[in-house]
Structure formats: structure tokens, C-alpha cells
Amino acid sequence: GAGVSQSPSNKVTEKGKDVELRCDPISGHTALYWYRQSLGQGLEFLIYFQGNSAPDKSGLPSDRFSAERTGGSVSTLTIQRTQQEDSAVYLCASSLGTTGGIDTQYFGPGTRLTVL
Amino acid sequence: QKEVEQNSGPLSVPEGAIASLNCTYSDRGSQSFFWYRQYSGKSPELIMFIYSNGDKEDGRFTAQLNKASQYVSLLIRDSQPSDSATYLCAGGGGGNKLTFGTGTQLKVEL
After folding, report:
1. Chain A contact for B50, CB < 8 A?
2. Which of B43, B99, B103 lies at the smallest CB-CB distance from A107?
3. Cα-atom radius of gyration of chain A, to the nearest Å?
4. Prior bond of B10 cis (ω within 30°)
5. What is the per-residue pLDDT for B92?
């Protein structure tokens, strides 16, 4: 079946502009995660959606970052007034949302954001 | 602060050898652990998970978990050049969130 998809695959923007990154999770997956990976670094957790529960926003680095998930499916990560340090690959993952057991996350191909 | 620690490497092993990748974690509440492989420029892909103490084997891969020592490892037998990648260790605390290590770069040399 179809995996996690993300768009765009690459985004180049100018400092100060707003950007929107999109994630389509695997059908039937109730949990959705956003991560950021800077060059040569590990995955930095940003935000987590689980079903209709309030999202866990504990990883968002500043109030310039926000995300929403409409209809429990597609998610959009918005970065306002982009800065050069926002340049990174933004990865989305989804999982079944199984609680009390193993819940494997599957990753999308990522969006490479470059802020000039 | 929940942490998952990995040696960044690179770890170089000759083709056909056993590669041993190690990971330690600080949160004793972590219950499940995942190993992901990430090729350069690509997204992470799941290799295997483990949640019970001991060994779990899947083909050429063996995951080992020692909860008393807060230690997880991944062994790759008969290493191939195609195994050259960064290996990410991640721990989960019973909820769905995972804490990822920074990854170990593995190079399998001909």
C-alpha cells in the first residue's frame, strides 16, 4: 500500500517568508509525528498528533512553528518568518497509534528546507 | 531529560565481518526499542524492534536488550557494503513518542 508522502520534496525560501510543509500519513494510521533533522544530526522531535487528542507540541522550538491535522489525516507544518537556522530536512512519520504495545513509526521521504 | 546515546562513528568493518552497534538510554521507563537504518539523503527505515530482555534475531540482524544495564545493541552478521548507512536507535516509554539517538555511521569496506 501507499506509504507516508510529503510535499514538497524540496523548498527554497528567503529569510522572513512563511512556509507550509504537508504530510499525508498511511491510511488508517491515527498517530502522526513531525521531526527535524539538521545536516549530520539525529532526529529532533517537533510535534505529535494522536487521534482527536490535543497534540503534544513539546518539541516545537519556537512560536514561529505550528502544525495542524485536519480530519485526522493530512497534516501541515507551518514555519513563520523563516530563519536560516530553520534549514533542515523535515520528516513526517505515522503509526497505527497502538497503546500499550509496539507502535512502529513509518517515515515519509522528507522535505528539504533551505532558507537563504 | 530522556536521552538515547550512540557513538557517532564512523564504525568501519570489513566485508563479511560482524558489525556491532551500541546504544544506551537514560529513561528506565523505556519499554520498547527500535533500530532504523538511514541511507545518506534518505528517510529512516525500520530494521527491527525489541522489548524483551535478551536477543531477537531477524535474518542477518540480531537486536540485544539489557534493561538492567540500560543497553541496546544491533549486530549485523556477514556485513555487506550495502549495509553502509547510519543506524538510529530509538526508545519508547510506553506511549507512542520515541526518543532517537544521533545515530552511528557504519562503513563496510571491501
Report:
1. no
2. B43
3. 14
4. yes
5. 86
- Contact (CB, 8 A) for B73 and B64: yes
Number of Cα atoms under 13 Å in the Cβ half of residue B72: 32
Q: In the 8-state DSSP scheme, what is residue A97? A: -
- Secondary structure (DSSP) of B28-47: TT--EEEEEEE-TTS--EEE
How many H helices and E strands in chain A? 0, 10
pLDDT tens readout for residues A46-92: 999 998 888 999 999 999 999 999 887 999 999 999 999 999 999 99
Give residue A20's pLDDT. Answer: 98
Res A1: pLDDT: 56
Least confident of A41-50, A70-79, B88-97: B88-97
Chain A CB contacts of B49 under 8 Å are: 102, 104
Is 90 exceeded by the pLDDT of residue B96? no
Chain B closest CA to A97's CA: distance in Å?
7
CA distance, residue A28 to nearest chain B CA (Å): 16
